[in-house]
Design brief:
The complex is a heterodimer of chains A (about 350) and B (about 375).
Chain A: E1 5-9, H1 14-25, E2 29-36, H2 48-61, E3 65-69, H3 71-87, H4 94-113, E4 118-120, E5 125-129, E6 136-140, H5 157-162, E7 163-164, H6 172-182, H7 203-210, E8 219-222, E9 228-232, E10 255-260, E11 265-269, E12 276-286, E13 298-301, E14 309-316, E15 321-329, E16 336-341, E17 344-354
Helix pairs in contact in A: 1-2, 1-6, 3-4
Chain B: E1 7-8, H1 19-29, H2 40-59, E2 67-70, H3 73-84, E3 90-94, H4 99-110, E4 114-118, H5 130-135, E5 141-143, H6 157-166, E6 170-174, H7 186-189, E7 193-197, E8 208-212, H8 238-253, H9 255-276, E9 280-282, E10 294-299, H10 304-313, E11 316-317, E12 319-320, E13 322-323, E14 329-330, H11 333-337, H12 342-345, E15 349-352, H13 359-382
Parallel strand pairs in B: 1-11, 3-4, 3-5, 5-6, 6-7
Antiparallel strand pairs in B: 2-8, 7-8, 9-10, 10-15, 12-15, 13-14
Helix pairs in contact in B: 1-8, 2-8, 3-4, 9-13, 10-13
The chains are: A alpha/beta (about 350), B alpha/beta (about 375).
Chain lengths: ~350, ~375
């Protein structure tokens, strides 16, 4: 009988290595694929070493491995918008965009060309049937500290049904032990935490290198009273809630409250007035096609690794939702807002800004 | 799929080691001694080395003394260019050369050499009159491959040499892809420098040679020893060179018969593909101006990367454009120079046969290719 073919996205790291090993052990006809995304030498991921590591793992497992060149796609769907968002005074989330446009779209389509019916990645997340509706839903990883469901909120039911996250029910430690037990050459490999294509984590320098020179404008830092308290080298150097690097000297703690790219203004405030009462979120995808019932214990995660906070959906027009917090909370336009009910991901979208 | 049932159609990347080369190398690695040493052990190694030099020289109608062994055709090409082109002089080459010519040419250009890259027609042949125009500027060297590795187009190097010599230029030809597949005679070609590769003709990788016309001075790239008459320092890779020699001798022995077999297999492959797939186009020149073993095709609307993977999974080893260090596929600069857009330049599938390729191999490979193309077309039509 012909085995079901699966493409496993292999970054060269330990998580996707174990994901590939688990797919092979489960009897799938596994094709390992690494993606060439960044321009040579511009980032810490997708380097030749990573490809060689992925190839070595594939060789160890006895599965074929290929490198696909997605540099142009990655530049147009991830890197260029990343730069544009920072210049617009927003805080982008390139990992979500990459999953959305590169891994779970283009790679999936190429996987189908290769005769695969499934796609697997090394993300820490799970696919589970919702106890209420019985539909496949994204569920947080068993290892809450490693959970990456935030980056995957855009996956719809069809995508979830064909996607495997083989390490989603394992802890990082279990993954490393399994890699070591299998003799995988990446068992001890350190993991990268930063945006993969930004060298040395220096986002400002990266944006400045890629931005058109006229887009880089210095401006003023203004406090709650409208007093100019400082100057800056461009709104792309800031994110909402940022405290360090404002160059305001001593005194009381001040945080970035808002960014106005049109005037080049960075608004700062004390901690007390930092939070928003609610926010507007666009391009919202709901797992059940609509917001959860108001009785649900709904929480929203506003950044990766931040704890979700209680909220209510107070408006929904089929594309945008208005959301109210129980406790005022800072929001960064451009970031993803992902809604959880317990471990289940009910949906998510892109933060437009505070509720008017 | 079992390894035994795989079909290898990537001879232009590397040919399998010939049994003659394997036997000769097995003996050579057992020898003790440095060929430069003045004892009997050294003399035995020297003897093996010089026999190989004679075998390689015979393949191209040259004198053994004019063969300089190198680490491969890449080094030979680098040596040919850097060894004769001086700063301030000119170099003429083509847009479809191998990277081991184009990149040294670019390096020379950065150091002040005037470099002209001749354009090619859509079939890969030189544009009429362009060489004459470039030679009017009296370049120091004209470097044009005898055969292109990607599409197999052959250049009339004898005619190039006579044009170039008329203006005082030296002529180098990269014969890595032609050697062992076409009869080569350096005197008939009239060139001054000629590069050879061992692993393209069934010898081991990591060995090559530069033939240098008697009397021509070439500045060495490597110094620090008297080896290769002072033109390439470093103790010779004796076992590799001996394997190269044995492979060259074996290739010279059955060259015409092998070329005839490869041509027949190649023609069969092309007719089988054309029969089954209407949207297939061949990249390259007329058969008379193409290597006997090479077929480069584009299946319209079929991305090369997916096709190559399906062929590999189906047991057929082929190649696409030029593989980069990461193993991903770059658009082919050769197809680009021949007027292909970027998508097509990524889609050119190179099928290169060898002396051992059978008609049965060709039929099985054609079936795998046709099935792969249809699967991709089906998937793309559905989405």
């Amino acid at each position: 009988m012909r085995r079901e073919r699966i493409v496993v996205a292999m970054s060269g790291g330990v998580d996707s290595a174990v994901a590939a090993a688990r797919c092979a052990a489960a009897g799938y006809d596994v094709i390992g694929v690494s993606l060439r995304l960044g321009r040579d030498g511009t980032g810490s991921c997708c380097s030749l070493d990573d490809f060689h590591d992925a190839a070595a793992v594939a060789d160890h497992l006895g599965i074929p491995h290929y490198v696909f060149d997605y540099r142009e796609l990655f530049a147009s769907t991830v890197v260029d918008p990343f730069v544009a968002e920072y210049l617009a005074g927003r805080t982008p989330n390139p990992c979500v965009r990459c999953n959305q446009h590169v891994k779970f779209d283009h790679l999936w389509r190429q996987a189908k060309e290769l005769g695969a019916s499934r796609l697997a990645t090394g993300h820490y997340a799970r696919v589970a049937l919702h106890p209420g509706s019985g539909r496949p839903m994204l569920r947080a990883a068993r290892d809450a500290a490693k959970d990456q469901s935030y980056f995957l909120f855009m996956l719809g039911g069809d995508a979830l049904a064909r996607t495997l996250f083989p390490v989603g029910d394992a802890t990082k430690q279990e993954v490393r032990l399994e890699a070591a037990r299998l003799g995988l050459p990446v068992a001890e490999k350190p993991e990268s935490m930063e945006v993969c294509f930004v060298p040395a984590g220096d986002t400002a320098a990266f944006v400045e290198r890629l931005a058109p020179p006229e887009a880089l404008r210095p401006g003023s830092v203004i406090d709650e009273d409208g007093t100019v308290v400082g100057s800056h080298r461009g709104v792309h150097r800031f994110t909402i809630g940022q405290r360090r690097g404002l160059g305001l000297g001593g005194g009381r703690a001040r945080y970035v409250r808002a960014l106005d790219a049109a005037t080049g203004t960075v608004h700062v405030s004390g901690a007390a007035s930092l939070g928003a009462a609610g926010f507007v979120v666009d391009e919202v995808h709901w797992a059940h096609g609509r917001p959860p019932d108001s009785g649900a214990d709904l929480r929203v995660r506003l950044r990766h690794r931040h704890a979700p906070v209680p909220c209510r959906v107070v408006g929904w027009d089929g594309r945008r939702a208005e959301v109210a917090f129980e406790v005022p909370t800072p929001v960064a336009p451009g970031q993803a807002a992902v809604f959880y009910e317990g471990e289940y991901v009910h949906g998510g979208g892109w933060i437009v800004g505070e509720r008017p | 799929m079992a390894a035994a049932s795989r079909i290898y159609l990537d001879y232009n990347a590397a040919a399998p080691l010939r049994p003659e080369a394997r036997r000769a190398m097995t003996e050579a690695v057992a020898l003790t001694g440095n060929p430069s040493s003045a004892h009997r052990e050294g003399a035995r190694v020297r003897g093996a080395l010089e026999r190989a030099r004679g075998q390689v020289a015979a393949l191209i109608g040259a004198r053994p003394a004019d063969i300089v062994f190198t680490s491969g055709a890449t080094e030979a090409n680098n040596l040919a260019l850097a060894g004769v082109v001086e700063r301030g002089s000119g170099l003429v080459t083509t847009a479809i050369e191998h990277a081991s010519v184009l990149e040294p040419a670019a390096a020379l250009e950065r150091s002040g050499v005037h470099v002209v890259r001749l354009p090619v027609e859509r079939d890969g042949t030189l544009v009429d009159g362009e060489l004459e125009r470039a030679c009017a500027a009296r370049p120091r060297l004209v470097s044009i491959a005898l055969a292109n590795g990607e599409v197999g187009v052959l250049h009339d190097v004898a005619a190039v040499a006579s044009t170039a010599h008329a203006t005082g230029a030296l002529v180098h030809t990269d014969a890595a892809q032609a050697a062992g597949r076409l009869r080569i005679d350096v005197a008939a070609l009239g060139v001054d420098l000629l590069s050879l590769s061992s692993h393209k003709l069934g010898g081991p990788a990591g060995v090559g040679a530069l033939w240098i016309r008697p009397g021509l001075d070439v500045r060495p790239l490597l110094t620090g020893g008297p080896q290769e008459r002072g033109r390439r320092a470093g103790t010779e890779n004796v076992a590799g060179i001996v394997g190269f020699g044995a492979a060259a001798a074996a290739a010279a022995d059955d060259l015409e018969a092998a070329a005839k077999r490869m041509r027949r297999g190649r023609d069969l492959l092309w007719s089988l593909l054309r029969e089954s797939i209407p949207d297939v186009e061949r990249n390259g020149a007329s058969w008379e101006r193409t290597l006997p073993n090479t077929l480069n095709v584009t299946f319209l609307g079929v991305p090369g990367q997916s096709l190559l993977v399906l062929l590999d999974l189906g047991g057929v080893a082929a190649s696409l454009g030029s593989a980069c260090a990461a193993g991903s596929v770059e658009p082919s600069h050769v197809l680009r120079a021949m007027g292909a857009d970027e998508e097509r330049a990524r889609a050119g599938l190179r099928l290169s046969l060898g002396r051992d390729t059978t008609d049965d191999d060709v039929r099985r490979a054609a079936a795998v290719i046709v099935a792969a193309v249809r699967q991709i077309q089906r998937e793309r039509a559905a989405s």
